[in-house]
């Protein structure tokens, strides 16, 4: 009987040691959580900066496209005016050549319009892509802000630890009735 009591005390001391280890692991997990929270804050700040930069780039691209379109229209009007002026100054036999030149210039202008339309289409695609990226970044930011990883909840784990220790003991081991109860009490006090 004395040997059984000694063995039980030894097992209980081992369990207490394991409880200290679990408490240390809990503290480490809390420290890891604090680091993760700090890191997620940095990620959220980076995402906000990325969003701001994407918006700035999008606005700059829009302004450049509008400026290019206005310049193209001004150039077209100037070329047409110069051609018409030169056509009016030429003798009538050269009018046909200048009519062809005017048509050629109009074709060139039409090609430039097609290029502008293509550029507008690409800008729209890029804008949609940027807006999709922006929306994704905003969703990730919102998710990070609304659902930060919660602290590791160790409450209610005493039963699992007790069951784990039972699996470590040989099946034919007979422990005093209050051993597991005491273990559960120790674990529950370390959770606080």
Give the topology.
Blueprint: H1 2-89, H2 95-146, H3 158-168, H4 178-191
Helix pairs in contact: 1-2, 1-4, 3-4
Can you tag this structure with a few keywords?
single chain, 192 residues, 4 helices
Radius of gyration: 39 Å
Outline, from the CA principal axes?
rod-shaped
Structural class: mainly alpha
**Strand coverage percent:** under 5%
- Strand runs, count: 0
Terminal CA distance reads 35 Å
Q: Give a quick account of the main beta sheet: strands, pairing sense, barrel closure.
A: none
Topology pattern, helix = H, strand = E: HHHH
Number of DSSP helical runs: 4
Q: Unreliable runs, pLDDT <50, ≥5 residues?
A: 150-154
Averaged pLDDT: 76
Query: Helix coverage percent of residues?
Result: over 70%
What does this structure look like?
It is a single chain. 86% of the residues lie in helices and 0% in strands. With 192 residues, it is mostly helical. The protein is rod-shaped. The two termini are 35 Å apart. The model is unreliable at 150-154 (pLDDT under 50).
């Amino acid at each position: 009987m004395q040997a059984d009591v000694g063995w039980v005390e030894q097992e209980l001391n081992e369990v207490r040691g394991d409880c200290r280890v679990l408490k240390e692991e809990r503290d480490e997990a809390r420290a890891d959580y604090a680091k993760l929270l700090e890191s997620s804050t940095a990620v959220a700040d980076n995402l906000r900066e990325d969003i701001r930069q994407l918006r700035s780039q999008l606005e700059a691209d829009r302004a450049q496209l509008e400026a290019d379109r206005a310049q193209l229209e001004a150039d077209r009007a100037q070329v047409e005016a110069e051609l018409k002026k030169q056509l009016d100054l030429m003798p009538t036999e050269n009018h046909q050549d200048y009519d062809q030149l005017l048509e050629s210039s109009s074709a060139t202008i039409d090609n430039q319009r097609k290029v502008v339309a293509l550029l507008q289409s690409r800008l729209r695609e890029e804008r949609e892509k940027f807006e999709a990226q922006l929306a994704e970044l905003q969703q990730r930011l919102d998710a990070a802000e609304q659902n930060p990883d919660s602290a590791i909840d160790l409450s209610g784990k005493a039963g699992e630890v007790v069951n784990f220790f039972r699996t470590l003991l040989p099946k034919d081991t007979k422990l005093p009735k209050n051993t597991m109860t005491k273990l559960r009490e120790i674990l529950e006090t370390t959770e606080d």
